[in-house]
Design brief:
The chain is mainly alpha-helical. The protein has 10 helices and 4 strands. InterPro entries: Cyt_P450 (IPR001128), Cyt_P450_E_grp-I (IPR002401), Cyt_P450_sf (IPR036396).
């Protein structure tokens, strides 16, 4: 394991060194700045500690690559099944970014700012609804660090494995109502047409903060 970690670390550190040198030599090169990969963004913010950057990069690659790909695959699948919702989201994106159907990909990318994203409330709701029905991690397990007792009185012992199932929880009518198995982004929209977050104990796709867990 140590040998493998060393190989990965050396590879990432090499990328960081090369990117740092490239950006320092090409500050006026617009092609470099427009690339806007995650490493370039952190370097632009003067975040230059190699270990910090290495940890960030690996976290995005390991924790974000497959989960993001899986979620987007299910999201586009749901869009294909609900073309009216697809058009509603596309219209929201057009209004938030100010682009039109003749805009280029580069124009679209440049128009996606934090302010524009804040206006995409229905898109946020649709992605969250996708995660409710098709969580990136459908089953998750934990190991008890010590003897404990659940709120309902069930006792667990140190070393016991305890699993919970976000996939099943996302379809429980006791949590989401009789339409639990329906794809309905509106359940995440409040009366002001803004995205409404649910308790992480109910919507467990991103898990509950570790400080709140009982294990």
């Amino acid at each position: 394991m140590k040998k493998c970690i060393k190989v990965v670390d050396e590879f990432v550190y090499k990328i960081i060194r090369n990117k740092t040198e490239q950006m320092s030599k090409s500050r006026d090169d617009s092609r470099v700045m427009k690339k806007s990969d995650i490493l370039s963004r952190f370097l632009e913010m003067n975040k230059t500690d190699p270990k910090y950057l290495k940890d960030i990069i690996l976290s995005f690659i390991i924790a974000g690559k497959d989960t993001t790909a899986s979620t987007l695959s299910w999201f586009f699948y749901m869009m294909c099944k609900h073309p009216l919702l697809q058009e509603k989201i596309a219209d929201e994106v057009r209004k938030a970014t100010g682009i039109n159907q003749n805009s280029s990909i580069d124009e679209l990318a440049n128009s996606i700012t934090d302010d524009a994203l804040d206006k995409m409330q229905y898109l946020h709701a649709s992605l969250t609804e996708t995660l409710r029905l098709y969580p990136a991690i459908p089953v998750d397990s934990k190991v008890c660090l010590s003897d404990d007792t659940f709120p309902d009185g069930f006792k667990v012992r140190k070393g016991d494995a305890v699993a919970y199932q976000p996939w099943a929880m996302g379809r429980m009518t006791s949590l989401w109502g009789d339409d639990a198995e329906d794809f309905r982004p509106e359940r995440w929209i409040d009366e002001n047409c803004c995205f409404r977050q649910e308790s992480p104990f109910k919507f467990t796709a991103f898990q509950v903060p570790q400080s709140l867990t009982i294990l």
